Amino acid sequence: MIRRFQFQTPIKTLPSLHHRLTTTTAAAVSPPPTTTPTPPPPVNPSHLLRVSTILYQQQHSPESRLHTSLSHCNFHLTHEFFLQICNKFPYSWKPIYKFHIFSQTQHFNHTSTTLNKMLDIIGKSRNIDLLWDFVQETGNRTLVTDKTYIIVVKTLASARELKKCVDFFHVMNGFGYGYDLGTLNKVVESLCGCKLVEEAKYIVQKLKGVVKPDGFTYKFLISGFCDVGDLVEGSKMWNLMVDEGFVVGIDVVEKMMDTLFKTNRFDEAMRLFQSVRVDRVDELGLSSCRLVIKWMCKKDKLGQARVVFDEMRERGIEADCMTLGSLIYGFLSKARVREAYEIAEAIDNPDISVYHGLIKGLLRLKKANEATNVFREMIRRGCEPTMHTYVMLLQGHLGKRGRKGDDPLINFDTIFVGGLVKAGKSLEATKYVERVMNRGLEVPRFDYNRFLHYYSNEEGVVMFDVMSKKLREVGLFDLGDIFERYGQKMATRDKRRDR
């Protein structure tokens, strides 16, 4: 059993990677007759507009004046109406709080949904004092849910009110909600998802006397520290998890390996994988093998990737398209084009990861024309390209920093640098304009993604169509096809939605 996770020493035997769960069979119970709930009445848009206008214009007025103006609107106050008013002011607490005070004069009964919505808005506006007072009111109404915990603690943690984060749990215990491990885990998972893992660790440590963390708690903390790139703290959580007798799950191992790969600690990641591979090979599934194969192919270690792939096949694990796409790229990076195409042609229903592996590998071999043929083939077979596909192809044809074309009128400078100027981004185009006059000048990498975003509108649809025709006129048929397809399917949000 591992006692310590250290990056500079070999990984010892991992503990069992997951609990064996026992299942029980419940007696079949006939479901009660279902009744269709009555849908809430629709909100009158004119009333909604009028009330939101009054709240905005009179948010600083005395309450009596505001209440009088709202009463004259003759609107029907429902929970749906209250929530839509909240949506009108997502970051402004005052209009919503004033409307809340008014609603208490109209015999309006809050639900946990409406109170959580208010807490969310108050928290986003960073009014910590009002948030804390409203927490007391919510607790008195006994409408606290797990979402209430998440909203309040996330707000307090973002504001570095760590003591209040812990006090919140004690306050809720005073209202009779108790210290619940499941609720704590949901809060920790939410905080780690927002990269507030240090704050989550502080809360767990301070509440350890009343809520003992379990394996899921440590899992979320390890994943959180991996997401922020803090492997030292992540390894400490790993060690603490093992010290307390919890099982290290395979998903935690994969997360740690992925982070080690991303931080260029390839050897340490492989030692971790080897320890699982030797002692717990039955626990290794497709996701673990896919992760290792992907990074081996990225690091040009095709031989090791083949060993893992063959071992995976011997164990009866079928490779998916993402794994095969990584292998295809690995073969192409070694200029083994024939073998890469053999793998691709053997796949019955290739998805976009397979085509991306082909395109990326061919572009690495400076075969931009052949990569464009793959682009045409994927469209013919019904696989729609993504933004990443277009950016890869543009970088392959024109270079990451832009290359001077053969034609003096239709080239990188006239299309992209001129396009930046036309879009009002003269400052971004300055370096590239200077390079036109001085070809030896170093320029930053051109952001094709941002350029396409600038023209993701109806004007861009026309521009891409005109550009594709001009490119074909000078013999650049590959680029013409790329721009034509982008203009047809990707240039606006509606086109992307309908494709």
What does this structure look like?
- There is one protein chain.
- With 499 residues, the protein is mainly alpha-helical.
- Helices cover 65% and strands 0% of the residues.
- The chain is built from 27 helices and no strands.
- It has helices spanning 45-57, 63-71, 79-88, 93-103, 112-124, 128-140, 146-158, 162-174, 181-193, 197-206, 215-227, 231-243, 250-262, 266-279, 286-298, 302-314, 321-333, 337-345, 352-364, 368-380, 387-398, 412-422, 426-437, 448-454, 458-473, 477-489, 493-498.
- It is globular, with a radius of gyration of 29 Å.
- Mean pLDDT is 85; it is low at 1-30.
Question: Key features?
Answer:
single chain, globular, mainly alpha
Principal-axis shape: globular
Q: How many beta-strand runs? A: 0
Main sheet summary: none
Element string (H = helix, E = strand): HHHHHHHHHHHHHHHHHHHHHHHHHHH
Helicity range of the residues? 55-70%
Q: Any low-confidence stretches, pLDDT <50, length ≥5?
A: 1-30
Q: Strand portion, in percent?
A: under 5%
Query: What is the straight-line distance between the termini?
Result: 52 Å
Number of helices: 27
Instruction: Give average pLDDT, whole number.
Output: 85
Task: Output the radius of gyration.
Answer: 29 Å
The SS-based structural class is mainly alpha
Chart the SSEs and their pairings.
Layout: H1 45-57, H2 63-71, H3 79-88, H4 93-103, H5 112-124, H6 128-140, H7 146-158, H8 162-174, H9 181-193, H10 197-206, H11 215-227, H12 231-243, H13 250-262, H14 266-279, H15 286-298, H16 302-314, H17 321-333, H18 337-345, H19 352-364, H20 368-380, H21 387-398, H22 412-422, H23 426-437, H24 448-454, H25 458-473, H26 477-489, H27 493-498
Helix pairs in contact: 3-5, 5-6, 5-7, 7-8, 7-9, 9-10, 9-11, 10-11, 11-12, 11-13, 13-14, 13-15, 15-16, 15-17, 17-18, 17-19, 18-19, 19-20, 19-21, 20-21, 20-26, 22-23, 25-26
